[in-house]
Amino acid sequence: MTTNRNAYAEVTVYHAVADSTFLCDWVANDHLDGHDWCPTVLEPGDDYTVIAIDGHTEARYCPGCGYQLFGVSTLDPARPATGSTTSSTAA
Fold first, then answer.
1. Residue 40: domain span
2. Using 50, 70 and 90 to split pLDDT, how confident is the model at 69?
3. In which region does residue 39 sit, left (phi positive, over 0), alpha (psi from -120 to 50) or beta (all else)?
4. Of 47, 40, 41, 42, which is closest to residue 2 (Cα–Cα)?
5. For residue 68, which of 91, 90, 89, 40 has the smallest C-alpha distance?
6. Residue 6 placed within a domain
7. Which of 1, 52, 77, 87 lies 20 to 30 Å from 11, alpha-carbon distance?
8. % of the chain exceeding 90 in pLDDT
9. What's the pLDDT tens digit per position in 18-28?
10. What's the pLDDT tens digit per position in 33-55?
11. Which one-letter DSSP state was computed for residue 12?
């Protein structure tokens, strides 16, 4: 799992991999050309995105329509960021 972090907003974006099968929960037909549900089904091994704010999972997004996914998958714990941050200042 890779992690991108926005330090200003305490938002972390996880690129996670599904470990179980779960469905999208989108039901607004005006966003899907007359369909009343998103047909996306995530299978084990499929990539999806998780948004966490201040360490708490806020949403899991469907790669098909962008809506929050229905169901719960087990997520790996976040790993601490590695590498150094460099800052240059003008003298």
1. 2-61
2. low
3. alpha
4. 47
5. 40
6. yes
7. 87
8. 0
9. 888 877 766 55
10. 555 667 777 788 988 888 887 77
11. E
Considering only CA atoms, which of 72, 70, 68, 61 is closest in space to residue 14?
61
For the chain, the domain total comes to 1
* Maximum Cα–Cα distance across the chain: 60
> Cα 13 to chain center, whole Å?
6
Confidence (pTM): 0.49
What mean pLDDT value characterizes the chain?
Answer: 65
Q: Which DSSP string corresponds to 20-87?
A: S-EEB----GGGTTT-SS---EE-TT-EEEEEEETTEEEEEE-TTTSSBBSS----PPPPPP-S----
> Considering the domain boundaries, does residue 72 fall inside one?
no
Q: What whole-number distance in Å separates Cα of residue 75 and Cα of residue 84?
A: 26
Can you read off the two tokens belonging to residue 51?
A: 């948004």
91: CB partners within 8 A, 6+ apart: none
